[in-house]
Specification:
InterPro entries: HATPase_C_sf, HATPase_dom, His_kinase_dom, HisK_dim/P_dom, HisK_dim/P_sf, Sensor_HK_Regulatory, Sig_transdc_His_kin-like_C. GO terms for molecular function: ATP binding; phosphorelay sensor kinase activity. The protein is an alpha/beta fold. It folds into 4 domains: 168 residues, Rossmann fold (3-Layer(aba) Sandwich); 152 residues, Rossmann fold (3-Layer(aba) Sandwich), CATH 3.40.50; 119 residues, Helix Hairpins, CATH 1.10.287; 145 residues, Histidine kinase-like ATPase, C-terminal domain (Heat Shock Protein 90, 2-Layer Sandwich). The chain contains 16 helices and 22 strands.
Length: 637
């Protein structure tokens, strides 16, 4: 991209930031300070800022975004960067203290790391578009052309209080690059490393010098842009010794601060095309270098925005979350085929790039045109079949609709019959206790009765009130069960003891002349159940047995089917019994085998819905002939 175009792109981003700052001007939150290295050649900077602003707004960010540019160009001016950073930080103190500082680019990153601890801002710091490897900027007295700094790792603890709370840093894997070179060129004796007159070039050269100590059998040749122009570099290319492999780091600026970009690498390639070249940073890939182990570069603006929102929402979070973007091994397809390189010989996985188009990619439009014609022909056939089957389906639906209408008519008639039966039952069952309550209440109000008569009237009123209340409760209980609005409250209980208590309670409350018997081989058995609902089912079955048995025996049985993991309950009586053809009907709502017996026909329906609610079933024993025998089950949990 031409230099003036990159300046235009930068000022466009600056203009957007001013607009966004105005949009957030009414908020009381602290601003975000973005300190940008801004190298005119680094178009990625402007893209990153643009993506950051867009995603920050979408994520609900409400802070002003202040952008400061250091306008760094080359390493020759690096002694001034420390002061420039200090001057920027001094503008944002006191009331202007930022809520977050973002260091964008290698130069801003290095200038911040070179500050004294007393100058460093207390605000959390995020870094991006930089590497975990750094060098501390030199003083004014250092000769920059010959300065050989030691690399500093972000995570080494050597950076004092200049803690980075978050960020995204690249990791350059020099040893794996050397292993790739030695795998493809085992006779290699010299590594010619190319770096330019930028901070990134100096930092990467420091890392290479440190890592090459692990390979003492290899000689390191430094082609340094701080002390060379593109022309002297080309001359040195001509005189490289045999068995030399080029490892390309960065190249944008030479010692004369001239920007050459891709033209420079083309010139190097043409100066000595026989020398194999690899890259640590994707420079030269696709036209010169064979490949290399390099960071998995990606756009970071949106990730930075989401991380900024997290930091601003959690200002007390002291856990740094610096993401290290790992490296990946990459090979150029054309070079790999030209040099007949064996990828399988590498000790790690590799990604092949710049592969030629497949047959589908080359003839995509022709393929899709043929498919379109075929689709039209098939579509015509499908349309014809569609109308044929549609006509047949409509005919079938008409026949089915006729059947459904008949079934709906039958259901409506049945529903009407059930409604009439319900109203008849309710009117009879409600009117009977109400008449008794009203009648005997009038007698009590009229007076003239002795205490014994009053007591009998009270008992009649109470028994009829209980009957009316039980009737209403049954109706409400049935409606809740049918609407599935009842949930079971499971708890551990001794069902043997519970059965004895229920049996004793029914025998007393019903004032029956029947004999009540409990039969079980268990003295105690613990089961998880809804105690209230289990009691309700047993009481309903016992009460039903009392209603149809006179001077007989009513037996409650409890047993366990261990194979099926099921508890079994049975209530049997010696009463009138139930005809076999009506045994399934007794569980239907409002069904009464004896229309003159007291009750609404709801008790057994409630029992059936309750037992099915806990996953069991209830039925009438068809083999029992001594009266009626009801059995229900409950799963053992």
């Amino acid at each position: 991209m031409p230099i003036h175009a990159r300046y235009i792109s930068f000022y466009l981003i600056l203009f957007i930031s001013v607009l966004l700052s105005g949009a957030y001007a009414n908020t009381d939150t602290k601003p975000i300070l973005v300190i940008c290295s801004y190298n005119p050649a680094a178009h990625q900077t402007s893209v990153t800022i643009s993506d950051f602003m867009d995603e920050f707004s979408k994520s609900g960010g409400k802070c002003n975004i202040e952008i400061e540019n250091m306008n760094c160009k080359c390493f020759s001016e690096s002694p001034r960067w420390k002061g420039m950073m200090q001057q920027i930080l001094s503008k944002y103190t006191g009331d202007k203290q930022p809520g977050l500082i973002i260091l964008l680019g290698q130069e801003a990153w290095a200038a911040y790391l070179s500050q004294e601890d007393s100058v460093v801002s207390k605000a959390p710091v995020m870094c991006s578009l930089t590497s975990r490897n750094a060098v501390i900027l030199p003083g004014d007295t250092v000769s920059l052309e010959k300065w050989m700094p030691e690399p500093v790792d972000l995570f080494s603890g050597e950076l004092g209080k200049k803690k980075v709370n978050s960020g995204f840093v690249y990791e350059y894997d020099i040893p794996d690059n050397i292993r790739m070179i030695k795998c493809f060129y085992p006779d290699t004796k010299h590594i010619a490393f190319i770096s330019d007159n930028t901070y990134g070039g100096v930092a990467m050269q420091a890392l290479v010098r440190e890592e090459m100590k692990k390979f003492p059998e290899l000689d390191l040749i430094l082609l340094d842009g701080r002390s060379n122009t593109i022309y002297t570099i080309m001359d040195k290319f001509h005189h490289l010794p045999e068995h030399t492999v080029v490892l390309l780091g960065t190249w944008r600026v030479d010692m004369n601060e001239g920007y050459f970009m891709r033209n420079a690498t083309y010139m190097m390639m043409e100066a000595n095309p026989a020398v194999p070249a690899f890259t640590t940073s994707s420079v030269g890939l696709g036209y010169w270098t064979i490949g290399g182990v390099m960071p998995a570069y990606r756009l970071l603006g949106r990730d930075m925005a989401r991380e900024a929102v997290r930091l601003l929402n959690n200002p007390d979070d002291g856990n740094g979350q610096v993401e290290v973007i790992d490296s990946k091994a990459v090979l150029d397809y054309g070079k790999m085929k030209e040099l007949k390189l064996n990828v399988k010989s590498l000790p790690f996985d590799v990604e092949v790039v710049n592969q030629p188009q497949t047959f589908y990619q080359q003839y995509m439009y022709q393929i899709w045109a043929s498919i379109a014609v075929l689709v039209i022909l098939v579509g015509g056939l499908i349309v014809s079949l569609f109308f044929y089957f549609r006509t047949k389906r409509l005919k079938d639906e008409l026949l089915k609709s006729e059947i459904d209408l008949r079934e709906a008519k039958d259901r409506a008639e049945e529903s009407n019959r059930l409604k009439s039966a319900f109203l008849a039952n309710m009117s009879h069952e409600i009117r009977t206790p109400l008449n008794a309550i009203v009648g005997f209440s009038d007698v009590l109000v009229a007076g003239g009765s002795d205490e014994e008569e009053k007591q009998s009237y009270f008992e009649i009123i109470k028994s009829n009130s209980d009957l009316l209340l039980r009737l209403i409760n049954d109706i409400l209980d049935l409606s809740r069960l049918e609407a599935d609005r009842i949930s079971l409250a499971l708890e551990s209980c001794d069902v043997v003891q519970l059965c004895r208590q229920v049996l004793s309670s029914v025998s007393v409350s019903r004032k029956s002349t029947n004999e009540f018997v409990f039969d079980s081989k268990y003295e105690t058995f613990t089961l998880k159940a809804d105690i209230q609902r289990l009691q309700q089912v047993i009481i309903n079955l016992l009460s039903n047995a009392v209603k149809f048995t006179a001077d007989g025996t009513i037996t409650l049985e409890f047993s366990v089917d261990k194979e099926q993991k099921t508890a079994m309950f049975a209530v049997s009586d010696t009463g009138c019994g139930i005809p076999k053809e009506k045994q399934k009907l007794v569980f239907e709502r409002f069904e009464k085998l004896n229309e003159y017996a007291q009750g609404t026909g709801l008790g057994l329906a409630i029992c059936k819905l309750t037992v099915e609610k806990w996953g069991g079933r209830i039925w009438v024993d068809p083999e029992y002939t001594g009266g009626a025998r009801f059995i229900f089950s409950m799963p053992i949990i």
